[in-house]
Amino acid sequence: MKIITPTISLLSIMYSGVALSNIEGDEDLFDLSFEQLLDVNISLATKTSETRSSVPSSITVFNQQHIALLGVSNAYELMNFVPGFQSTRGDWVGAVPKEHTRGIYLDSGNVLVMINGQRLNDPSFGKASVYMPFIPVELIERVEFIRGPGSALYGSNAFLGVMNVVTTTDRSQLSASIGEHGELQAGLSFNKQLSDDFKIYSNFSVNKRDGETYSFGVKDPLESYFLEIGAKWRSLNINVRKNTTQLDEFINLAGASKGNHHRSENTALHAIYEWSNNEEWQLSTSFDFIRHEIESKGLIASAEATDLIGDFFVGPAWSTKDLALKLDGSYQFTEFLQVNFGAEYSEEEQFKAGVISSYYDYQTGNTVVENQYYLGETRTIDSHPPFNDLLSSFDSYALYAQGKYIATDKLTMFIGARFDEVKDIDSKLSPRFAFIYDLNENHTLKLQYGESFRTPVSNELYSNDDVTVGNPDLKSEYVKTTELVWHTENQTWQMDVVFFNNELKDFINLVATDQAQTRFTFDNVFETSMQGVEVNSNFNLTENTWFEAGFTQLFDEPINPSFKRFAAAAITHQFDMIQLSVNTIWRDKVFVASPDLSVSQDFKQSDYFLLGLTASFSIDNDSSIILKAQNLLDKQYKVFEPRMTDGIVPTQSRKLLLQYRLTF
Length: 664
Hints:
The protein is mostly beta strands and about 675 residues long. It has five helices and 38 strands. A hairpin with a 7-residue loop joins β36 (about 640) and β37 (about 650).
């Protein structure tokens, strides 16, 4: 048996569909022809079965074999291989990844993140990255991306993109890894068909890392656990999931300290029942429940730099819960007309809004930073009166419909819309349409248009702490996206070129409330446009060699300093017993002038390459050894963050990981 994992995004789209429909176990993907690899189904963007040339959205999908080859540790790191996306560290919880999406580098959940179709963006912070980024890729079957608007199908937060992580239910596998900086990983996937109608499955992983030491005297340790147990009985699929992540030291709330602490946890239930699935009707109902809990504290002021007798730490101790009921259906009227439709009801509630602090006045219920109120330690205060307004709920209703009409043998049209009503916040109608024209068997042109929104979350509306103050007058963010796509393919290569135009309205951003930029509020400050081009190309160089390259060029300056140009490439070659893949990520320079003209503190980061390598050795039909390397040349680079004193968030150095994998 050969160990095969293809190269980057376009091929991964092809492989993901093949892996799901045509391949059992670890069958050699290189035995397939290029034409077979093109014959796949893509459903994330339309909820209809589409091929690469017929899908009416910009899509990237990675399957399990491909993910293993890229050498990444978690799903968020895959963003660096998706055109229009990048993932770096931030400042709020510095070790947590932060998205760059088509020129937008912010911290407000503008990408909808899902696990098995269940949304993870919470109602307090709006983002998902604080809850799930460190799920080891060994448990993942595939990761699907929509590049661009997705609100017409998925509602709020599907603003600039959608990421859906699909965990495995069909693989029994054990993996163990050891790496630099004291990293240890272990993963176990198990499934058992108990009868023709009944199957059970489970996924478990643990990931621990001592972390590397940074110039400001702290490390970035990690401890993460993931557990999923599920069962399939006839038309019912139900699973429960628990994910816990702890990150200490490093940067939190723009301060670095060994006393920093961050712990996030979510517990989820996901159930879906398929009422009908035939050539004419598809109808299903799903129920989702998820509970988020977060405890986080960061150094705001040190005793050494003030007259305080102890360091001042502060942060949230918040809990939220989401409940959603969904109905999804599809009806094939004729061979030329198919209609998808759905309805959704959800309840989102923040039911705990406490504070973690080292200074507190219990009589007034405030964090008073004076020596007489020093607690001698950091304590969790479950009920913090200034946070009472955060104890709010966001009930919402939604209806959507979409029609696919094959007008001629060359022209296919998609037209649809979704209406969302978020109680006491906003209501939005999100339309979309696409026209797909096949010039000939090798060339396809697409015109795609969609509108998306993101409603403000409780932190933006009602926060009241030592870092941010909410703004209850915020409006929803809105974006109108137009894309012109040229897709071309032949027997040995294919390419996508996407020109996009984003018209952004009422975009929410942090605004400093003092000259020192130590306290911020939120406001609808942006109303601008962003244009760019994304290119993906794949080449079947030889029977055993694949190459892919992607490139993104923004025509406008990014919102908040980000990368105006970036690229990724990978080449994979299959030897008899060894598979070798080399990949690289390139990012353009970033320059930010200091706001204080009297002090020269300009931020400068030259362009740079990050080199990665994965080598897989097949021991026998069931086991293999894999060496993964990220940032192989140990490139030292930095990321800009306006809330950091010097604007700098340091990044990770070289990461080597040796893994043993057994399939049973």
